[in-house]
Every structure is written in C-alpha cells, then in structure tokens.
Amino acid sequence: MSDAGGLPLEKASQHREQYLSLQRDSLRDPESFWAKIASQLVWHEKWNKVLLWDPPFAQWFVGGTLNASENAVDKHVKSWRKNKAAYLWEGENGERRTITYGEFHREVNRLASVFQNFGLRKGDTVAMYMPLVPEFPIAMLACARLGLPFTVVFSGFSATALAERIQDCQAKIVVTADGGYRRGKILELKTVVDDAVKESPSVKHVVVFRRTGHVVPMIEGRDHWWHELMAKASSYVAPVPVESTHLLYILYTSGTTGKPKGVAHSTGGYLVFAYATQEWVFDAKDDDVYWCTADIGWVTGHTYVVFAPLMHGLTSVIYEGALDYPRPDRWWEIVERYRVSILYTAPTAIRSLMRYGDDLPKQHHLDSLRILGSVGEPINPAAWQWYFDVIGHGRCPIVDTWWQTETGGIMISPSPRLGLVQLKAGSATFPLPGVEADVVDEKGNSLPPSEKGFLVIKRPWPGMFMTLYNDPERYRQVYWTRFPALYYPGDYAMRDAEGYFWLLGRADEVIKVAGHRLGTKEVEDALVSHPSVAEAAVAGKPDPIKGETIVAFVMLRKMAIPSNQLSEELKQHVRKMIGPIAIPESIYFARALPKTRSGKIMRRVIKAVAAGGQIGDLSTLEDDASVDEVRQAIEGLQTAEKTT
Ligand code: WT7
Q1: Does 581 reside within a domain?
Q2: By alpha-carbon position, which residue is closest to atom 6 of ligand 1?
Q3: pTM across the whole model
Q4: Burial of residue 485, with CB atoms counted within 10 A of its CB: 0-12 exposed, 13-18 middle, 19 or more buried
C-alpha cells in the first residue's frame, strides 16, 4: 500500500475519522449546508427554496436569479485580479498568449454584443465546434451572459454527429474556427461545420475564429469572421440574470441506445456544485497555476477548465495540442515553463506518457507540482504509482475523482482542502460532503464491505443534471427506474473494510475508449448503416493504454465479401458517422452473431470473445438461450475472419 501522499501514516486513520464526521455532518442538514456555499456566489435575487425535490426531478435554489458569466468574470474585474492571468495558453505550434481577467471580460462582453446584434435572446441555443483556444471559453461565457444555452461538440466528432446535435437542440448559431493544430496537422473544423450546417436549417449564422489562417470557404451572409464582428461590437453588455434552473448548457453523451443523450445542466445548482468541488478537491490558492488537461468539449473541461476555476479567479493553463507533439515531453515542458502546481488529467494520458519511460519527466523541473488529479476511468495501480513517484516525486497527493457528465462535478474524491485521508492506489476514497453514495445489490440493498455491486447516489445534489433535453421520460427510465428513488450512474463499485469506494467500471453497454464514452449500440448503428452490413455487435476490449478499444463483429449482407479493404471501408464509415474516436480497432467478419431466441445479441459472449478471455460458466447465462446455442455461437465468433 502506498503512503498517504505527504501525510504521515500514523495520522491517517485520525484524518479519516475527521473527514468522515465532517461528511456526515453535511448530510444532516444538506439544504443549509448547500445554501451556505451558494451564498458565496453572486445572485441577483436570492432563492426562496434551496431544493424542490419532485423525484426524479430536482430544482435547486428555486426563485434565485444569477448569471454565470458575472460569477466567472465580472466578479474579478472589480478587484486586483483584473490583471491576473485567467488563462495561460499555448498553441501546439508554440504560440503563447496570456489572457488576464480584464481582457477576458472584455472579450466575453464583445462576443455577447455580437450575439445580441444577431438578434439572439435568452433561451436561444448556440452550438460550438472549437479547437482549444481561449476563444472557446470566451464563447461559452458570452452565451451564458445572455442566457443562451449552448452545446459544445468535441472536435473529434464527425459532421453527421455534429448535425445530429445541432438539430436536436435547434441551434441558431455555430461558433467554430478555421482550424486547429493537432500533431502538426490542421484539423479542418470549418469544413465539418459546413457539412453539418447544410442539413441543419435552424442555423442562421456561423462565427469563425481565425486560428490557423489557412484558406477556408466562407458563405456570404451566413459565415462571419470572429475578428470582424468583434471589431464592431461594444465592450460591455449587462449580464442577463436568469433563474437558477435556467438551462446553462446541454452536453451530449453516449448511452445504451444509438441516440446520444442531451444532458441538461442548470445554472445555479451546477455553478454552486462546481464552485464547492473545485475548492475541496484541488485546494487552489491565488498563487497556484492549475492545469486541467481535458478538452473543453467534454464535461471535465466545462466544469474544471471553464466555470469552476474562473469562479475562483484561478490561473489556468490551456494547451491546444497533442501530448506527445513534437516530442513526448511536451507536457513536462509545459509544467516546467508555467510552474504548474495542480495537474488534473486522465489515466489514459498517464499510461501513454509512462510508456516513454522515466527519463523524460526527469529532464524537467516538476517541483512546482503539489496536487495531481485523475479522472475518466478507474486508474490502475501501476499508473497511479508512476504518477505518484515519477511525476509527483512522492510528495503530491493524487486525487482520483469519480464523477460523470450527468453529475456536473466531482462526487467521490479525496479532499486536500477538507482533510486528506490516506490514499489507496485505485480508490477514489470517499464521497464529498453533501453526496450520499452507496453500493447496492441487484435489488437495491446496501452491500457489506468487499462485495461488488452497483454504485448509487441516494439524494439529489446541486450539480445534478435537470433532465435529458427534450426527453424527460428517458431521463427517468435510464437513471431512476433500476433502483427506485436511487440515482443509478451505471457503474460497478465496491467498498473495502475501511469504507473506501472502489469504482470498478461500467455496468452497462458503455465503452470507455481513452476515457471517452461511447455506446456499443451507437457504433453498431453506424456499422449497420453501411450497405454491406446486415448486423453488427460491438464490445470493448481491454487495452494497456486506452483502457478499452472497440472490437466489432460484423455479419455481411449476402452479396458482400469479407476483405481487408471492406474492413477499412467500414472503419472510414464509422469515422464519418460518429468520428475518429469511435473507429473499431479490429473488425471480425462472422457468419452469425450470438443471439438469444428473442433476438437479443448476447453481449456477455461478445465481450468475452472480444477480450479473448474465458467465457465463464455458461450455465449461469441469464440470456434465454441454451448452453449449446451459446457454445456454438462462441465457436462461430472465434473462427470469424479477422481483418486488420
Ligand atoms: C464515467 C463517466 C467525469 C468526467 C469524465 C468522464 C467513469 C469517471 C472515474 C474514476 C473510475 C471513473 C465512470 C463514469 N469514471 N471517473 N475516477 N474512477 N471510473 O465523464 O464521459 O460522463 O463518463 O466515467 O464509469 O460513469 P463521462
């Protein structure tokens, strides 16, 4: 077992008791607990009810009005922080910019003025498809300033996926860039937007930030250069106060059906939770340099690159590009250059950097670091130890943070601010204050220590999503029916004898590829939409770097013939339908897919065969197929033709 990350071991159990009693206290009267934190934000009108809980729908700080951009920027320009750096930005090509809170405020206001000039009003939606440049958070806050709910689509999604999201929320504006740099190449973002907008009549204007300067087609009347619009915009727009329950953003994420889920976050509750968790988990002070490496296209970036650090007036690093470009020590160079003190990243990144050995980090001064964070998937002990020893030099606690797009912010994590408990490699330790978590069996009964079950959250928390956009029924069904009155996140978990939580991966048909969430059904739908494919079954296969990769079993239509070329074509088809993040690593051509009598694909079988492992005891398969049928199906798969 590792040591406590700077904490003398003999003090560890004392700290645990201290932390747990604080945690218990928060649950005694959670409403006043959260109200106290909420009063640290700027409100126009104070709420008259902290929580309105009409299961499974929660409304936080009801009656209160506030504005997210006011809380994130206006607050600071009235103080010395006006000249403090909000962002230290580094482009992949070496360009650097420092943006102070004062400058940031001005840009947010000018873009809000641009949106106003387009005639956008509170409630209109905006989509973003951006590279990692400071204009990305600027655009998010400009929307928030006017009460325009936005949806960010990660730049690794295809035009088809972007169009689907734009159409679902009926975005009127798309904010993008001429491109962005990735491994020395230009990401053609504008062309993707053009293809997506072609099929999206709701979009009236496209705002294009000039990042690369290469030539991109601009459509007269629809497309506008960011800098030209900004030159004519006013530098102050009053923030529009919105209800606490006003939609701040929609973030689409994968579930168990083909259609992505629009996770809808509120303004008040979300901001309060983001504000509190940032402080508890990262314990940042004014002189810290904080770097959350996540792309803003994912929830980690929304909460911990944009809203939470800005509300706290922190200085954050944003790096545009690939972690190993031009050399695999790029990240360590950045930590050294900006004297990063808090680093928050994903296990997949840690594992890929670990692969390059200890010499590269050793060539850099990493002594500025004091807290290390991890998020996105369970962190394996080897990666944890390397992060702790080689990056943190054995002095930085690792905050392993469990949460989800739906939860809005961190739910289970050590808390250096409130009292650091002894760390255990691979455990996210304990729920944060105000969060009541449990591990339950199939029937929803709390499980004793060391038994694997399902993680549940037993009461609402402020960061909790309000619903699935335009689909409250699916919201209820996916998250609240499996265990009545308990929130079901879809994760396996276990508690050990000391009560530590161990998150054990997804319990549903969601795959985590390099920390990105993908639904098996989503990839299957993409494959089946190809004319040569009759049926497809997809599973995650364990991978030493990415955590999981995608394996696809495909049954072709009669006329189609298996070949490497067809396999490549199918991969390109998935890229076109979803994006490069969803491309299967391998495709097998099977004569038949293992199905139950009622026609359901036997997922456990697919998964086991994909992993190349043991199928396990066939007699316990709950699928309505006979053991023989399953055995035959397995043999069928195992003899399937693999292509590369
Ligand atoms: C799923 C949520 C939350 C931001 C990034 C991912 C897995 C996340 C951990 C962790 C074990 C983790 C869970 C969760 N997960 N953090 N520290 N330990 N598993 O957001 O795409 O919504 O995915 O990521 O399975 O349900 P997301």
Answers
A1: yes
A2: 376
A3: 0.95
A4: exposed
